[in-house]
Amino acid sequence: MRTFVQTCDQIAGTPKKLEKIRLVAAYLCSIQVAEAKVAAVFLSGRPFPIWEETTLNVGGAMLWRVVEELSGKTDSELSAAYRRHGDLGAVASELLAAISPTKDLSVSEVQGMFRKITAARGPAAKSALVRELLTQVTPLEAKYIIKILTGDLRIGLKESLVEEAIAKGFGSTLSAV
Q1: Tens digits of per-residue pLDDT, 27-50?
Q2: In the chain, what are the domains?
Q3: Is the dihedral of CA 109, 114, 117, 119 positive or negative?
């Protein structure tokens, strides 16, 4: 997951479409195919492939409470950080600095946690699983996990750019696919 989020930061840091495609293609080609499938979905800003029609039912208020609890910050401190960043993922990245993960989760393991969250019944169970996930990752990983949970990646990628990167990385053109 660490390489995934570093790639996301690089993608967010460039306004150049071809550079974004190059970064995505290089990343996807550097990992196992099973991981690349999950990463491509995440890069499209979703936790699951669109054809699955699976929903997490995790709202912004729940994520807010989990970040508040894990960070030990007050609601007003979270609000101030949100005003600075305008994005709960970025707020989590800033405020969860005290969390030190013990291992590097793969994108497949993160999606597995997303599936557990989907299967959980009730807000308390879902909240506990989100909390568990966020305590296992770095602050930067938490940023992108929250962005994926909310469906708002905002790194300048569209699904079509991810598709172009897949075609480029795996030696095909979209017209031949």
Answers
A1: 999 999 999 999 999 999 999 999
A2: 2-169 (1.10.3260.10)
A3: negative
DSSP string, the chain: -HHHHHHHHHHHT---HHHHHHHHHHHHHTS-HHHHHHHHHHHTT-SS-GGG-------HHHHHHHHHHHHT--HHHHHHHHHHHS-HHHHHHHHTTT---SS---HHHHHHHHHHHHH--SHHHHHHHHHHHHHTS-HHHHHHHHHHHHT---SS--HHHHHHHHHHHTT--TTT-
Per-residue tokens: 93: 């990245």
In this structure, what token pair is assigned to residue 107? Answer: 């994108």
Residues 6+ apart with CB under 8 A from 110: 1, 38, 42, 133, 137, 145
pLDDT in tens, 70-120: 999 999 999 999 999 999 999 999 999 877 777 789 999 999 999 999 999
